Amino acid sequence: MEQNQTAARVVRGRNRIRTTTGGDADSDDVRTHIQRVALELFIEEGYDKTSLREIAEQLGVTKAALYYHFPTKDDIVNSLIEHRIAAIDALMEWAEAQPRTEQTRIEFVRRYSVLHDVSKHEHVIRFFERNQTLINTLPAGKLMKGQMERVFGFLMDPEESTVQQIRRAMAIFTIHAGHFIFRGRDDVSAQDRRDATLVVAEDLMRLAAHRDTAEDEAERR
User: Fold this and answer.
1) What confidence tens digit (pLDDT) does each residue in 110-119 have?
2) Of 17, 80, 91, 175, which has the maximum CB count within 10 A?
3) Planar angle of CA 181, 184, 185, nearest 5 degrees
4) Mean pLDDT of the chain
5) What is the pLDDT of residues 173-216, one digit of tens each?
6) Ramachandran angles phi, psi of 145, nearest 5°
7) Which one-letter DSSP state was computed for residue 170?
8) 104 with 153: CB under 8 angstroms?
9) For residue 172, is pLDDT > 90?
10) 134, 147, 125: which is closest to 74 by C-alpha?
């Protein structure tokens, strides 16, 4: 995974996790480290099959140290989703304050791609691909689902043809799919994959802006 791996340890007698660099036990670095390790296990082993004890063992700490920051697995997942939700909300606020032009929508896709390339966000998407049922059970999961509907609502225009609307939606799915398509491929670097998915996403957006004769005929049938 393309993330900075912050080492952590337990301060004996206090059952609290601190970074080896001497950071505060309540610091974002510590929580990020726990999230990263837990997310790796959730993706590899599955959410239901991963226990807090296993997460603590992977961290090399006691369960009490883990409980101090995250009492339940749901707390870990919600914290990851809430981080992504906040980032998408900020992006949507920017977009909705702009003129709804084709250039704005393309710029939105570019900014979404940059946001998605933040490792934590990308792996949250991977986590949900592996654990679909959680979307309908966790509060943050439901928020995330609703937020994606808001993203599509901004990009898609009901007055456009169905084909055009699907192309716009697929621009976002293309950004999500890049990781899965090239997973395990040593011949494609992460940067090449990111650049390629963005090119395809932008192509889909530009193609959606131009309705052709064949689509006109299809809509009339």
Assistant:
1) 999 988 776 5
2) 17
3) 75
4) 80
5) 999 888 778 877 888 888 888 899 999 999 999 999 986 545 55
6) -65, -45
7) H
8) no
9) yes
10) 134
Greatest pairwise CA separation for the chain in angstroms: 74
pLDDT tens-digit map of 23-48: 444 456 788 889 889 988 988 888 88
- The whole-angstrom separation of Cα 47 and Cα 57 is 16
DSSP strand E in the chain: where? 8-11, 16-19
| Amino acid (one-letter) located at 49 | K
The beta-carbon contacts of 62-67 under 8 Å, at least 24 apart in sequence, are 62/10, 62/15, 64/15, 65/10, 65/15, 65/16, 65/17, 66/17, 66/34
pTM of the model: 0.72
- Length in residues, the chain: 221
Coarse DSSP helix, strand, coil percentages of the chain, rounded to the nearest 5 percent:
70, 5, 25
Q: Phi/psi of residue 61, each to 5°?
A: -130, 175
